[in-house]
Design brief:
Largest sheet: 6 strands, antiparallel
Distance between the termini: 87 Å
Number of domains: 2
CATH class of the largest domain: Alpha Beta
CATH architecture of the largest domain: 2-Layer Sandwich
Helix content: 40-55%
Oligomer: single chain
Shape: elongated
Number of helices: 6
Strand content: 15-25%
CATH topology of the largest domain: Beta-Lactamase
Structural class: alpha+beta
Order of helices and strands: HHHEEEHEHEEHEE
Radius of gyration: 32 Å
Strand order of the largest sheet: 3-2-1-6-5-4
Length: about 260
């Protein structure tokens, strides 16, 4: 009698208990599937996603993050090295186009520090410089005020090239650097991306007293420097992409006079 009574109680509880447990079990299953699916999508792999979701420990996760950061840094180093190589090749082609050119260089504009007024002060860096035979490339420098470009910045913003002599340089520091290199004349051309944004300038320099190229040769040099400015803008864009999170696909490598950047 006692055991029959116990069995009757369980028989009467079984259906309500199943109804009460079914919804939590379904909810737990749905949440588990969503949790696993999130990691599968994030890892772009079913195996890796399931491993991260259910097997990986905190130590494993920290090690994986370190490995990914190391791989990203190595990729960035590779891109920066190849970008510098591509830019130096373009500058070397400019120097090699006329034996009178003392050196060619690339200046890149960037956001500077905030002044006392709270306004951002734009700066520029000399990032690459190639010298002709018998000349030194000169010292690199960075974070120089863009006010040193006041004589030719309007032309650069209009997409124009131009010549300027040392006498036309108003900035005392910029002029002192040029005098130390015996520079007498500058030819500047813009580095502009496909959206028309000014990224910097390519400059060719001649020593004081050096005879400049004739009109036709100068026109060819200006055309060469304009083309180099467009190609350098593509290289700078590629360098900028490599400095992201390391997960974005790289753009199509630029082709520089028959040479494709790896």
């Amino acid at each position: 009698m006692f055991f029959n009574a116990i069995l009757d109680v369980f028989r009467n509880m079984r259906q309500p208990l199943a109804r009460h447990l079914l919804q939590p079990l379904l909810t737990a299953c749905v949440l588990t599937v969503l949790y696993a699916g999130y990691h599968i999508v994030h890892q772009s792999s079913i195996v890796d996603g399931l491993r991260v979701a259910f097997v990986e420990t905190d130590a494993d996760r920290a090690s994986r993050i370190r490995d990914r950061e190391d791989a990203t840094m190595q990729a960035e180093l590779h891109h920066v090295a190849m970008a510098d190589q591509a830019i130096d090749k373009l500058l070397a082609d400019i120097v090699g186009s006329d034996p009178s050119i003392a050196r060619a260089r690339l200046d890149v504009i960037h956001n500077g520090v905030h002044g006392m007024t709270g306004l951002g002060l734009l700066r520029y860096d000399l990032t690459n410089s190639i010298a002709g035979a018998g000349h030194a490339p000169g010292a690199m420098f960075e974070n120089q005020p863009l006010s040193e470009w006041s004589q030719f910045l309007p032309d650069l913003l209009d997409g124009k090239c131009g010549l300027i002599g040392l006498d036309g340089m108003h900035g005392s520091l910029a002029r002192a650097r040029l005098e130390a290199l015996n520079v007498g004349t500058l030819l500047f051309c813009p580095v502009t991306d496909q959206q028309g944004r000014l990224l910097g300038a390519v400059l060719a320099q001649w020593d004081t007293g050096t005879r400049l190229p004739e009109a036709e040769a100068m026109d060819q040099l200006i055309a060469r420097m304009k083309k180099a400015g467009l190609q350098i803008a593509a290289v700078l864009g590629l360098r900028g992409t490599s400095e992201g999170d390391g997960e974005s696909p790289s753009p199509t490598p630029p082709i520089i006079d028959g040479w494709t950047m790896p």
